[in-house]
Amino acid sequence: MTGIDAYLQRLSEELHRRFITDALIIDEVRGHLTDAVEAARSRGVDDAEYCAIELFGAPEVVGAAFAADRTRALHRILLFGACVAGLAVAYVDSRPTWDDAGVTAGTMFLLATVLGLLGPQRPWLWGLMVGLGVPGYALVRNPAGSALTLFAALMFPFAGAYLGRGIRLIARRAPQVERS
Questions:
Q1: Between the CA of residue 122 and those of 3, 111, 151, what are the distances in Å?
Q2: How far apart are CA 48 and CA 150, in angstroms?
Q3: Which of 8, 9, 21, 127 is 20 to 30 A from 52, alpha carbon to alpha carbon?
Q4: For 16, phi and psi rounded to 5 degrees?
Q5: In 10 A of CB 18, how many CB atoms?
Q6: Neighbours of 135 (CB within 10 A)
Q7: What is the model's pTM?
Q8: Where are the domains of the chain?
Q9: Residues 168, 79, 124, 148: is their CA dihedral positive or negative?
């Protein structure tokens, strides 16, 4: 195994740890490293592979950069969706004719589960955004009442978000079946 192959293996593991499974990234990095090695050899550098890898950066740093770039837009969309979902659930729950806490809790659980599947890096944020609307509205409406006990309702979206993250982790670790 060459130094480049070992580096690409470490980078692949780092990307996997950050929920990025795009094989094209590894191919692109391999091409850049190969070009850098050839350029270094043409300049007469003794250990061209080592120099190319050092210039490219540690796999942890490169993996973090790819992950940040890849997930920035997705997380903004998911954050907006979580806020809208939380407000919608709070709105429906605040209606005078609505009296079904089980449906409210189940809806928060399911919404947060989907968000946890789509954005497994921040399940705490999805649970918080989906779940804060209901107790927040109750606290604003009746600050002296027992609205604080409604914060226990946060356990449903938090459980859902972490379940979604767990499903994503399990699915990621499942053996991949090759398609022919």
A1: 34, 14, 20
A2: 62
A3: 21
A4: -60, -40
A5: 18
A6: 19
A7: 0.63
A8: 3-57, 71-173
A9: negative
Nearest to 91 by CA among 107, 115, 72, 109: 107
- Read off the tokens for 66: 């790819």
Residue 147's pLDDT band, with cuts at 50, 70 and 90, is low
Which pair of structure tokens corresponds to residue 147?
A: 């609205």
| Whole-Å CA distances, 150 to 73, 89, 127, 142 | 32, 14, 14, 12
Smallest CA-to-CA distance from 109 within 134, 80, 79 is with 134
Neighbours of 52 (CB within 10 A): 23
Which residues contact residue 144 at a Cβ distance below 8 angstroms, ignoring those fewer than 6 apart?
none
Model confidence at 72, pLDDT cuts 50, 70, 90, reads: confident
**Where does 4-159 show beta strands of DSSP type E?**
none
Please report the beta strands in 106-149, taking only residues with DSSP state E, as ranges in sequence order. Answer: none
Closest alpha carbon to 115 in 159, 172, 152:
159
5, 20, 34, 99 from 67: Cα distances, Å? 21, 7, 23, 43
How remote is the C-alpha of 108 from its chain's centroid? Answer: 19
